[in-house]
Write a structure and sequence with these properties.
Rossmann fold; 305 residues; 9 strands; 12 helices; five-stranded parallel sheet; single chain; 41% helix; alpha/beta
């Protein structure tokens, strides 16, 4: 049984298969309309969500299955043994997807579960977003091999998964950030990336953009903290620190570089509103492709591909 927690234990062949099948599923959705008939997906949310919830719930429905939404606070997870709760849910459902605050809780859930567990986002990883992102790159460019991906802003859970998925699909990944969100640090992942020969780090955004096919950014401040008065001082510090790394008109002027963002965006901060709505932007294709890539992931985990 395979879980999808980090993508670190996924072979490159598996990631490429999921991406290629996602493109096929998007082109011919009816071909797969009953492929998970009679199957159920448990969706457990500790963090708020738009794209993750809608794409998984709609995706499971379109595959002929059924999705169950549950908020962590309205279950017994807060007072019970997490592995035991995972084991119980796995007796009812064929897949579990969880979007949690702490990766250690997701690992505990997977430890108890008897069915595959999918990471819908934790502080360390966002593998479902990365699969959709590389699907989008391949859809737009016809390949991932040799594509130059530049990630700028703050290193975080999104850049962790995106970097791994990029190098596993043959792309070159450059991390161009002034600092890392502390909870997202994974030294083991960095060792894997640095050994790949396709990973680089720099703080020179102009230099990184010279051969960039894709420039990717994410929020400098987690959504739940953006309007929190207690976070105001840190918010201002981050704005001051990261402003030179904004994806804006000057950065992409005269380039065919694809602009990517996992959404939701803080327009005027990590990305300008003009660029977000420009022809370079593929952010809503990314959002749509969460649906198709997650269909492919669920099919792959259940041995249907």
């Amino acid at each position: 049984m395979q879980d999808c927690i980090t993508l670190k234990d996924f072979e490159a062949e598996a990631i490429n298969t999921i991406i290629d099948k996602a493109i096929e599923i998007k082109a011919e959705p009816q071909k797969w309309a009953s492929s998970l008939s009679g199957k159920s997906l448990a969706m457990i949310f500790q963090k708020s969500s738009t794209r993750t919830r809608f794409s998984f719930e709609v995706g499971m429905t379109q595959l002929g299955g059924h999705a169950i939404f549950a908020q962590w606070a309205t279950t017994q997870f807060g007072i019970a043994d997490v592995p035991e709760e995972g084991r119980s849910i796995s007796r009812y459902c064929d897949l579990i997807m969880a979007r949690l605050l702490r990766n250690e809780d997701l690992e505990a859930l997977a430890q108890g579960s008897e069915v595959p567990v999918i990471n819908g986002l934790t502080e360390l990883y966002h593998p479902c977003q990365a699969l959709a992102d590389l699907m989008t790159v391949k859809e737009k460019m016809g390949r991932t091999e040799g594509v130059n991906v530049v990630y700028t802003g703050i290193a975080n859970n999104v850049s962790n998964s995106l970097s791994l998925c990029s190098v596993q699909t043959g792309a070159n990944f450059t991390l161009c950030v002034p600092e890392r969100h502390p909870p997202s640090l994974d030294e083991e992942l960095l060792d894997i990336l640095r050994a790949s020969g396709r990973y680089a780090e720099t703080d020179d955004l102009e230099a990184a953009m010279e051969n960039a096919d894709v420039v990717y950014t994410d929020t400098w401040i987690d959504m739940e903290f953006f309007t929190d008065p207690a976070f105001a001082e840190e918010k201002q510090r981050r704005i001051d620190t990261f402003q030179p790394y904004q994806v804006n008109e000057a950065l992409v002027e005269g380039r065919d570089t694809l602009v990517m963002h996992c959404l939701p965006a803080h327009k005027g901060y990590e990305v300008s509103e003009t660029v977000l709505g420009s022809p370079n932007s593929v952010v809503f294709d990314q959002a749509e492709n969460r649906l198709h890539s997650q269909k492919a992931l669920m099919l792959w985990l259940l041995g249907k591909l």
